[in-house]
Every structure is written in structure tokens, then in C-alpha cells.
User: What shape does this take?
Amino acid sequence: MGEMMSKLEIRQSLPGDVNGIEQLYSDAFPDEDLLPLVKELLDLEQGVVSLVGIGENAIVGHISFTFCRVEGASDIVALLAPLAVTPALQKQGIGRALIQTGFEQIKQSDIAYVFVLGDPAFYARFGFKAEDKVATPYPLPAKWHGAWQSIRLCDVDALHEGMLLVPELWRHMALWTD
Ligand SMILES: CC(C)(COP(=O)(O)OP(=O)(O)OC[C@H]1O[C@@H](n2cnc3c(N)ncnc32)[C@H](O)[C@@H]1OP(=O)(O)O)[C@@H](O)C(=O)NCCC(=O)NCCS
Assistant: This one.
């Protein structure tokens, strides 16, 4: 059993959080080097919602949403990634709280759609469904079929068919393949 969380504060990430966020990602994703991507996300001054979860004065979770567009449409949509919770504090609701707080902020920015590449066993409970109209910037490996998902947060028109147009930092094939 891990430790129990007593309180959780969620706020926008700040430049001084970088060390805590780096520690979090090396703990939560020991086999993947997400740090270069995460650092680039933290350096973006706009076009990103980046939240940290703070418990007992330490960073225990992080989530990021990058603003994107779909080919042929002008509406802004968001790409949820990455999301990490300190291993000892997983399964206590921190991930859910980060996703829900993020969705509230995303809606305030008039963004209706969020995309994610992740395990449907986790993301389906938040309302994500397999996405087949909007394509990933790089073709996914066959075994990741079903991992590309989206959710509609407000009552707006259906999505255009097309490719998700991501900012430069997401244009690395290694982020979309294994
Ligand atoms: C995935 C992760 C972010 C979830 O965070 P968390 O704080 O443990 O999640 P929560 O406690 O808020 O869980 C919310 C729900 O998801 C379930 N859940 C948690 N981890 C799960 C998993 N790996 N697979 C399926 N369901 C999961 C919980 O049981 C809970 O279910 P409930 O709503 O029925 O109670 C966290 O486990 C993590 O950082 N994992 C390693 C990195 C990773 O895989 N990130 C995913 C990026 S795509």
C-alpha cells in the first residue's frame, strides 16, 4: 500500500515547479523519456493548460492540455498529454481531479473537444470514446487501435474529418509510435 493523501491543491504550473515535475515523470514513467517534451510544454507561454497537483508541499501530479486544430476547421481543440501521478499516491483520485479541473479550464477557453492517446480502460470512465474522424499526426501501431480517443465537453457541432494539427513540439514520430 502507498501513502494516503490528506489534501490536494490543484493550480497552474509555475516555472519553479520544473524540478518537482521532472521527478514526478521519472517516477511515473521510468521507461519513457517524456522529460524533453514536458519541459517544452512548461516553456510554452500560450496554447497550453498545465496543472500540478500539490499534496504536503510536494508535486504529486501533473496534467497538460495542448491547444491544436483539426485540418480544415478553425476551432481550437485540445490534446490531453501527458498525465502523471506519483506512483505511491495512485488510485486515490488525483488523476481524476486533474482531468476534471483541466476540463473546467478547457471549457472556459471555449474548447469543446479533447483528444487523448491512452488506455481506454482508464479514459472511458471520463467519457472518452474511440475517435475515428480525426486522425493522429502519425499513423498509430495496430495494437494501439482504440487508444486514440476524444470527448466532447460542450454541445457543439460534430468534428470535421481531418488530421489533428499539433504544434511543433508534438511533431515527433516517436511520441505517436512505440
Ligand atoms: C494513469 C494515472 C494518471 C491515473 O492516476 P490516478 O490518480 O491513479 O487515478 P485516479 O485515482 O483518479 O483513478 C480514477 C479512476 O481510474 C481508475 N484507474 C486508475 N488507474 C487506472 C489504470 N491504470 N487502468 C484503469 N483504471 C485505472 C481508478 O480505479 C479510478 O476508478 P473509479 O473512478 O472507478 O474509482 C496514474 O496511474 C499514472 O500516472 N500512471 C503512470 C503513468 C501513465 O500511465 N499515465 C497515463 C498517461 S496516458
